[in-house]
C-alpha cells in the first residue's frame, strides 16, 4: 500500500477516535476543575476558538507544564535577548505551566493553552497564530499537530528531546502513526545519544537526530537567592532543615514517617514541604497538623517561626529558593513510578539530595550525579530516610556532595548554545 495512503488511513482512524472522545475531554476538564479551579477557565483555548483577529506571524514554543517550562527557560531567555524583534508564543497544557510562563516572562511572550490534538482545532490554532517556526520541548508527540505543521510548511524542531524506555513502550500501539509523524520533524535535538536511539526505534531517521545535551544544565540561579536563603536561615536559627520537594500523593505518608523518625534524633528539625501539584497543598498541610506538628504555610505566614515543625510551600515558582534554605533534600516523584523530577535545581543551588529508585525521566542525569558522588538513591522510603539522616548528621559529606553536583552542572552547560545553532537556520 502506498505510503501516503497508509498515512491517510492512520490519521483518519486516529482523528475519528479523538472526535468520539471529545465528550471525555469535557469530563476531564470538569473533573480536574473540582481539584484545581483553573481548569474551569479558558476552555475556548483548549478547542482553538479565538475571539480576536488572527495574529501576526510568531515563533512558537510548546512546553506542556512547569517542568518543561523551567527546562525551556534558558532557551526562551536567549531568544528574547538575541532576537527581541521576534513575536514569541509559548503554549502549555496545564494551569501550573501557564502560571509559570506568566511569572517568568509576563507580557514579553504571548501565551495560550495548546488545543487538543483534534485536526480542526490544530488547523485553527495554526491559522490564528501563523507560526513560522515550532519548537516542541521534550516529548510532546501529537500526530495531528506534527502533520498539520508539515502540511502548512511550518518547520518543527523537538528540542531537549527525551524518550525514556518506558515512554517508548507506551507508544507501542501508536508507533506506526507516531513514527510517520516524527519523520515530518526537521530536527530532533536529543538530550543524549540513548534518547536519540530510542527516537530512532520509534520511527525517526538517523539524519534527523542531533545530540545537543540537556537544557536543564543551563539552569540560571537567581542572584537574589543567596540573600533569600541567608534571611531564611537567620529566621530559623541553628535548626536543621530538610525539604521534601515535588512530592506526589502516594509519597506523602512516607514523608510524614521520615520526618517523624528524623525528629526523634533532631527534635527541632524543620521540614519544608513542596507538593508537586497545587491541589495537594491544603491536604498536605492538614496531614502535618493531624500528625501533631505545628504547621505554617508560605501563603499565610511567609516564613516559619521557632515553634513550627512543618512549613508547606503552597506557592509556585519558589522551589529553587527553598532548596537553597535546606541542609538536605528529598526530590519526589521517585518513590512511585512517576519517574522523578528535576535533580539539577538542588544541584545548582548547593543542596545535598536524596531520591527514591524511580528515575526513568532523569535516568542519564541521575546516573551521572550518582557516579560523581552528588546524589544518594534510596531503594525505598526507609532507605531514603536513612540517607537523609546520614546527610543531616555529616556536614562534611554534604559539602562533598554539593561540590560534586555543582561541578557536574557546570560541566554540562552549553545545550542552549548548541540548540540555538541547530535551529538558527529556520529563525525568521
TrEMBL record:
Principal subcellular localisation of the protein: membrane
Keyword match Transmembrane helix: yes
Protein name: 3-deoxy-D-manno-octulosonic acid transferase
Reactions performed catalytically: lipid IVA (E. coli) + CMP-3-deoxy-beta-D-manno-octulosonate = alpha-Kdo-(2->6)-lipid IVA (E. coli) + CMP + H(+)
Listed Pfam families: Glycos_transf_1 (PF00534), Glycos_transf_N (PF04413)
Site (Transition state stabilizer) location in chain: 138, 216
Known function: Involved in lipopolysaccharide (LPS) biosynthesis. Catalyzes the transfer of 3-deoxy-D-manno-octulosonate (Kdo) residue(s) from CMP-Kdo to lipid IV(A), the tetraacyldisaccharide-1,4'-bisphosphate precursor of lipid A.
Membrane-related topology note: Single-pass membrane protein
Gene from which this protein is expressed: waaA
GO biological process: lipid A biosynthetic process; lipopolysaccharide core region biosynthetic process
Pathways per UniProt: Bacterial outer membrane biogenesis; LPS core biosynthesis
Superkingdom: Bacteria
GO MF assignments: Kdo transferase activity
Transmembrane segments: 12-31
Family per record: Belongs to the glycosyltransferase group 1 family. Glycosyltransferase 30 subfamily.
Keyword Cell inner membrane: yes
Top EC class, one word: transferase
An annotated GO cellular component: plasma membrane
Cellular location(s): Cell inner membrane; Cell membrane
Keywords assigned: Cell inner membrane, Cell membrane, Glycosyltransferase, Lipopolysaccharide biosynthesis, Membrane, Signal-anchor, Transferase, Transmembrane, Transmembrane helix
Active-site residues per Swiss-Prot or TrEMBL entry: 68
Annotated Glycosyl transferase family domain residues: 248-405
EC id: 2.4.99.12
Amino acid at each position: 500500500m502506498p505510503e501516503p495512503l497508509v498515512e491517510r488511513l492512520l490519521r483518519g482512524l486516529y482523528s475519528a477516535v479523538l472526535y468520539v472522545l471529545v465528550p471525555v475531554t469535557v469530563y476531564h476538564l470538569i473533573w480536574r476543575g473540582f481539584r484545581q479551579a483553573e481548569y474551569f477557565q479558558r476552555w475556548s483555548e483548549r478547542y482553538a476558538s479565538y475571539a480576536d483577529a488572527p495574529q501576526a506571524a510568531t515563533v512558537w514554543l510548546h512546553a506542556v507544564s512547569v517542568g518543561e517550562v523551567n527546562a525551556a527557560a534558558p532557551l526562551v531567555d536567549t531568544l528574547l535577548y538575541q532576537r527581541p524583534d521576534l513575536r514569541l508564543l509559548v503554549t502549555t497544557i496545564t494551569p501550573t505551566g501557564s502560571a509559570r510562563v506568566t511569572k517568568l516572562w509576563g507580557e514579553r511572550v504571548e501565551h495560550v493553552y495548546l488545543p487538543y490534538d483534534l485536526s480542526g482545532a490544530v488547523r485553527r490554532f495554526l491559522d490564528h497564530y501563523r507560526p513560522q517556526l515550532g519548537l516542541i520541548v521534550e516529548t510532546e508527540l501529537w500526530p495531528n499537530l506534527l502533520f498539520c505543521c508539515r502540511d502548512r510548511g511550518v518547520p518543527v524542531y523537538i528540542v531537549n528531546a527525551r524518550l525514556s524506555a518506558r515512554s517508548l513502550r507506551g507508544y507501542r500501539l501508536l508507533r506506526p502513526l507516531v513514527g510517520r509523524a516524527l519523520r515530518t520533524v526537521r530536527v530532533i535535538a536529543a538530550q543524549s545519544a540513548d534518547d536519540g536511539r530510542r527516537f530512532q526505534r520509534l520511527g525517526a531517521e538517523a539524519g534527523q537526530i542531533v545530540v545537543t545535551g540537556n537544557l536543564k544544565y543551563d539552569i540560571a540561579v537567581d542572584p537574589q537567592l543567596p540573600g533569600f536563603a541567608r534571611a531564611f536561615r537567620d529566621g530559623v536559627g541553628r535548626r536543621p532543615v530538610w525539604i521534601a520537594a515535588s512530592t506526589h500523593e502516594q509519597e506523602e505518608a512516607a514523608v510524614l514517617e521520615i520526618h517523624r523518625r528524623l525528629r526523634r534524633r533532631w527534635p527541632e528539625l524543620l521540614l519544608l514541604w513542596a507538593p508537586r501539584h497545587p491541589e495537594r497543598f491544603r491536604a498536605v498541610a492538614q496531614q502535618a497538623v493531624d500528625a501533631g506538628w505545628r504547621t505554617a504555610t508560605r501563603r499565610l505566614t511567609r516564613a516559619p517561626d521557632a515553634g513550627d515543625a512543618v512549613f508547606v510551600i503552597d506557592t509556585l515558582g519558589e522551589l529553587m529558593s527553598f532548596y537553597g534554605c535546606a541542609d538536605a533534600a528529598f526530590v519526589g516523584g521517585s518513590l512511585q513510578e512517576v519517574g522523578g523530577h528535576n535533580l539539577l535545581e538542588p544541584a545548582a543551588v548547593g543542596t545535598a539530595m536524596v531520591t527514591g529508585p524511580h528515575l526513568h525521566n532523569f535516568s542519564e542525569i541521575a546516573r551521572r550525579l550518582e557516579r560523581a558522588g552528588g546524589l544518594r538513591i534510596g531503594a525505598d522510603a526507609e532507605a531514603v530516610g536513612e540517607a537523609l539522616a546520614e546527610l543531616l548528621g555529616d556536614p562534611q559529606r554534604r559539602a562533598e556532595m554539593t561540590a560534586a553536583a555543582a561541578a557536574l552542572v557546570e560541566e554540562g552547560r552549553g545545550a542552549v548554545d548548541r540548540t540555538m545553532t541547530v535551529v538558527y537556520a529556520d529563525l525568521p
